Backbone:
C-alpha cells in the first residue's frame, strides 16, 4: 500500500487489525469473519482477506469497513466449500484458492465468480496471476498454468512432486518449492525459448530433470544441456 507507516494483520481471533508502525498503536479493528483469517492481500486502499469461514471479504483501509463479502462459498457451483487459503487481487480481478482444491476467479465489480476451476486434488497451496495466466500449486504435488481469460488448463509446469509449497513467476521464469523424495527442493524453470538454468541458493536441494544437487554455501549458477526432446 502507499502508506509505508501502516501494517495490516489477520488473526485467529477472526479480526483484521490496522496498525500505525511508528507508534505501534492499533488504529482500527475490522470485524466480520466468523473464523480464523488465513490470508491477506492489499491493493491500494483495499485489503482482501480469506478465512476458515470459507468467505473472502474486501475492506476499505481508510474507511475501516467491509465493502463486499464474496458469499455462496457453501455451494459447489458458486464458491469454495472450505477455507480460503490463497488469494491475489489485481484491479477488478480477485483469484482465490481453497483447501477444497478449487480456484475461483472473481469480478469485484459484479461480485460473482467468472471462472470456477477444479484445479487440484487437494489444497491449493500457492497461486499467482498476471494479465493472461494463473499459475497454481497444490498439495497434490502439481503445478498448473491456466488461462485467465477462459479458465482452461494450458499445461502442467513440472513433473508431479509429493507436494508443492510455493510457486512464483515473473515473465517466462518460474520458481517452484516442492517436496521430492522427502526433501525440500527448489526448481527454477525458464521458457523453452531458452536453455534450462538452475540457480543454486544456500541451504536447499535443487532439482532439475535427471539431476539433483545439494546446494553449496556460495551462490552459483549453471546451465544444463538438453536432449532434443527435453522440455523445460
Residues:
Amino acid at each position: 500500500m502507499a502508506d509505508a507507516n501502516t501494517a495490516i494483520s489477520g488473526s485467529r481471533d477472526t479480526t483484521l487489525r490496522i496498525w500505525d508502525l511508528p507508534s505501534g498503536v492499533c488504529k482500527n479493528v475490522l470485524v466480520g469473519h466468523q473464523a480464523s483469517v488465513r490470508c491477506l492481500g492489499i491493493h491500494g486502499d483495499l485489503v482482501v482477506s480469506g478465512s476458515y469461514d470459507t468467505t473472502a471479504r474486501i475492506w476499505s483501509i481508510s474507511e475501516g469497513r467491509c465493502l463486499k463479502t464474496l458469499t455462496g462459498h457453501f455451494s459447489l457451483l458458486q464458491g469454495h466449500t472450505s477455507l480460503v487459503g490463497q488469494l491475489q487481487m489485481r484491479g477488478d480481478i480477485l483469484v482465490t484458492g481453497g483447501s477444497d482444491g478449487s480456484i475461483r476467479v472473481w469480478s469485484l465489480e459484479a461480485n460473482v465468480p467468472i471462472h470456477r476451476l477444479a484445479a487440484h486434488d487437494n489444497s491449493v497451496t500457492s497461486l499467482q496471476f498476471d494479465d493472461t495466466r494463473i499459475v497454481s500449486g497444490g498439495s497434490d504435488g502439481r503445478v498448473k498454468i491456466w488461462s485467465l481469460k477462459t479458465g482452461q488448463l494450458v499445461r502442467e509446469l513440472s513433473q508431479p512432486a509429493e507436494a508443492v509449497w510455493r510457486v512464483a513467476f515473473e515473465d517466462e521464469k518460474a520458481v517452484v518449492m516442492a517436496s521430492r523424495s522427502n526433501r525440500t527442493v527448489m526448481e527454477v524453470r525458464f521458457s523453452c525459448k531458452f536453455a534450462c538454468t538452475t540457480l543454486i541458493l544456500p541451504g536447499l536441494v535443487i532439482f532439475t530433470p535427471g539431476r539433483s544437487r545439494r546446494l553449496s554455501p556460495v551462490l552459483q549458477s549453471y546451465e544444463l544441456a538438453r536432449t532434443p526432446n527435453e522440455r523445460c
